[in-house]
């Protein structure tokens, strides 16, 4: 594998009792890029993510990360390699503080995830790194706030901070702006751009204005198969892509939210 690509899939396929959810997908994610996986509902995007993080095993095909075949590895092994996924529904501990949420993620990385009986003083050594991560996502002033009280967009920012605490080489973001108002979408879009400055991001996203503004490259799925790949300006004019999204070639992809 060329070092240009951090992640490759080769003929990746997933069948469920005869239904082909992911059909021979060849994905090449460039190191240091923001790569978006888009497509209409039912296109196979989330199934593809589940295959990459080994929540599902492929029927056929191969997954390579950093040049090594990881197709048969378990989810924990994949995570240890630095492939970290942020889920579609915010996955934070609602009754812990913002600081405590990030600290738990750091404990996981340091191998002390289940040492909840450790003294507060022992855990305090993690606080400088916690505050650094909260600075990164603009949440330092909310460090003492109970997470359940955060606005939705801030919760997603916290989730990105906890993902960053795992020191990912590849961040998989599943619908990071889903259900957000315009202001929160802008906040999280800028945040993704910021955290992608020195790492690779692969994201599933319905919001085309987000995709067009931050994705370096886009792969379009329809009925489980790749129908187009390239920069947004190119794929947004592809007749097959427009047909897949709206059933008509007389539409602008900019308005499609799948």
List the helices and strands and how they pair.
Elements: E1 5-16, E2 19-30, E3 34-38, H1 45-52, E4 60-65, E5 68-69, H2 75-81, E6 83-86, H3 98-110, H4 120-124, H5 127-136, H6 152-165, E7 170-174, H7 182-195, E8 200-204, H8 208-214, E9 217-222, E10 225-230, H9 232-235, H10 239-246
Parallel strand pairs: 3-8, 3-9, 6-7, 7-8
Antiparallel strand pairs: 1-2, 1-4, 4-5, 9-10
CATH class of the largest domain: Alpha Beta
> How are the strands ordered across the major sheet?
6-7-8-3-9-10
- Give the N-to-C terminal Cα separation: 33 Å
Shape: globular
Number of domains: 2
Going by CATH, the homologous superfamily of the largest domain would be P-loop containing nucleotide triphosphate hydrolases
- The second-level CATH architecture of the largest domain is 3-Layer(aba) Sandwich
Q: What is the H/E string? A: EEEHEEHEHHHHEHEHEEHH
Rg on CA atoms, Å: 19 Å
Strand content: 15-25%
Helix content: 25-40%
The number of distinct helices, counting runs of at least 4 residues, comes to 10
Q: Could you tell me the CATH topology label of the largest domain.
A: Rossmann fold
Secondary-structure content class: alpha/beta
Report the strand count: 10
Can you put this structure into words, describing what you see?
- The chain is α/β, with parallel strands linked by helices.
- The protein has two domains: 1-82 and 168-258, P-loop containing nucleotide triphosphate hydrolases (Rossmann fold), CATH 3.40.50; 90-167, no CATH class.
- The chain is built from ten helices and ten strands.
- It has helices spanning 45-52, 75-81, 98-110, 120-124, 127-136, 152-165, 182-195, 208-214, 232-235, 239-246, and strands spanning 5-16, 19-30, 34-38, 60-65, 68-69, 83-86, 170-174, 200-204, 217-222, 225-230.
- The strands form two sheets. Strands 6-7-8-3-9-10 form a six-stranded mixed sheet, with helices on both faces. Strands 2-1-4-5 form a four-stranded antiparallel sheet, covered by helices on one side.
- A hairpin with a 2-residue loop joins strand 1 and strand 2.
- Helix 3 (98-110) runs parallel beside helix 6 and helix 5 crosses helix 6.
